[in-house]
Design goal:
313 residues; Quinone Oxidoreductase, Chain A, domain 1; Rossmann fold; 2 domains; 17 strands
């Protein structure tokens, strides 16, 4: 099999290596159709920008190597077993994966193969929505229309029947959002009750703070790595009783924990991905041969325009 390795903070390459041993026969071999590049997290990993204090928490299933390089990293794949069954699984970028049966989620609806890797970030979007505990009358914005922002907006539309306003400075992304029917705000005068923040920039987070209504809430989905963030909290932050709430996918949101588990969350994600609009968010499907070059661009923050990036095997 071939696997994608970051050999140092400047280099990515495909390596051919034998599959892990399965003398016990307790694993299933799945052939990967597509894997998704999580451009925020994977840029930090490929650039060596994961803080040592987070090494243990950042380990993903079937990862090899370590964050000091070389490292095999990634976590959103879709593929099929020899009998043709389709699965979503957490695994670094690799064309054939030997996976424990309990680590495979069987996709039993008619979800196209290229959308199966999106289940991972759909779970992130769902958790954020549950963490927000949106009320019917509340106004909602999403700051940053990238991978997570796009999935969030479409999930709010189909799962909550809520239309979010998009806050996005990039012209290509703002035009993409407008073409899909969302209102795009220049973030000048409008305030909101809830803002989902996805840009991983202090400017974006500060703008969210500055554009909340009293008792407003920011759901922070950004991962900053080693980057320090400076915020101005001396103006309306306390006067308005604002909240910055961290959201992450590793645990089910407490708001739904009594009746939701990881398998149910994946099933809900797969069901929602059949709704209109999600296909349009998949803007860049690249050949596996192109992947090392894409990671070079990602390190330099010079990726071409796009929202969701998939590697096709």
């Amino acid at each position: 099999m071939k696997a994608l390795w970051h050999t140092d903070m400047n280099t990515t390459e495909w390596r051919h290596q034998p599959l892990s041993d399965d003398a016990s026969g307790r694993y299933i071999d799945v052939k990967t159709s597509h894997s998704m590049i999580s451009t925020g997290t994977e840029r930090l990993v490929a650039s060596g920008a994961v803080p040592p204090s987070m090494y243990d928490k950042m380990i993903v299933p079937y990862m090899e190597g370590n964050f000091d390089f070389p490292i095999k990293y990634g976590y959103a794949c879709g593929g099929h077993s020899e009998d043709g069954k389709l699965y979503h699984y957490m695994h670094p970028h690799q064309d054939i994966c030997r996976v424990r049966p309990d680590a495979l989620f069987r996709v039993e609806n008619d979800l196209p193969a290229f959308k199966i890797p999106l289940i991972s970030n759909m779970e992130t979007a769902l958790n954020a929505i549950w963490d927000a505990e949106c009320q019917a009358e509340q106004t909602i914005a999403i700051c940053g229309f990238g991978n997570i922002g796009g999935l969030l907006a479409n999930t709010l539309r189909h799962y909550m029947d809520k239309e979010a306003t998009i806050i996005e400075k990039d012209n290509w992304r703002s035009q993409k959002a407008e073409s899909m029917g969302w209102k795009v705000d220049d973030n000048s005068d409008t305030n909101f009750d809830i803002i989902f923040h996805t840009t991983a920039t202090e400017m974006g987070l500060q703008s969210c703070i500055d554009h909340l209504n009293p008792e407003g809430k920011i759901i922070e989905l950004s991962w900053y790595g080693t980057k320090k963030v400076q915020l101005t909290l001396g103006a309306d932050f306390h006067y308005k009783r604002l909240t910055i709430k961290s959201s992450q996918v590793g645990q089910i949101s407490p708001a739904v924990r009594e009746h939701m588990d990881y398998t149910k969350r994946k099933a809900l994600a797969a069901e929602l991905l059949q709704k209109p609009g999600f296909d349009e968010l998949v803007t860049n499907i690249i050949s596996w041969k192109e992947a090392p070059l894409i990671f070079n661009d990602l390190r330099k923050k010079q990726l071409p325009n796009g929202l969701i990036w998939l590697i096709e095997y």
